[in-house]
Amino acid sequence: MAEPVYVVFNPQSGKGRGARLVAPVLSALSASGAAVEHGRSTRAGEEAELARAAVARGFRTVVAVGGDGTWSNVASALIRSGRPVRLGLVPAGTGCDLAKSLGIPGNDVAACARIILAGNTRAIDVGRLLPDDRYFINVAGFGYDIAVIEDSWNVRWLGGGALYLYCALRQIHRFPGFPVEMAAEGEAPVRRELLMLVVANARVFGGGFRIAPGADLGDGLLDATAFANMGVVRRLQTLVRLLRGTHAGTPAVSATRARSFRLRFERPPAYETDGEWNQAVSSELRIECVPRALEVLAPSQW
Q1: What is the spatial distance between Cα 225 and Cα 258, in angstroms, rounded to a whole number?
Q2: 231: helix, coil or strand?
Q3: Which pLDDT tens digit goes with each residue over 68-114?
Q4: 126 and 290 in contact (C-beta within 8 Å)?
Q5: pTM
Q6: Which of 3, 102, 18, 31 is nearest to 67 (CA)?
Q7: Residue 4 DSSP one-character state
């Protein structure tokens, strides 16, 4: 790859790992002779601004160093630009779940650089949540998922998948559940009492939970997994199955694959997209798949 590369760093990702990777990433990418420029975010969401500015200057390869939230912010900026820009990923965040689905190594900067410099791209789907007009590349989650994220804000002594697992176990006892009316495209709505609802574009979320083992990033569909509200013991049993990726097909879990879903809550819900907390503007939401909306640099065998 001889063309210029712009690298967006989130120094705060992975409890400071993003900052520690600045020199190694720039060195690995520059070794090919390509011109490499970079920027560092200083506040939440600034990664999107850096990516927009890079695209406006003519960069057609943008690399994001961080986790799922960083990648989502940068990807959204690239999609909204309407220009043919490739996204490269270097894991440095807490979960880095999209990398697991794409076969991108989590702790090998040199290998990530080789993938980026090789220039092999895959067109992947993205999700879009309306009326908020928010894109996601990995998952959108409601309920227990949000409780775990909010709990993780208060835990300073853990990182990575261990942080999510610890908070997940704590919220097994604390989260009360929620009602929602849900309809897949072409189907009648059904009101349900749920523990958690995850609409997945990729296979993994929450630092390693295989939420949708059969999800395909290029099939033009989203995979919704709904967990019925249940007692603590059954919650623990379901969590273990979720860790193993064997939760699908159990009585308390239902999986639906569709191009879009409509959700109606009692009030505008908090939700997460790619690990980032959001507050919905409406109690009625539509989640849709936008097919092949993003070009990602990935291993050739993916």
Answers
A1: 11
A2: coil
A3: 999 999 999 999 999 999 999 999 987 789 999 999 998 899 999 99
A4: yes
A5: 0.90
A6: 18
A7: -
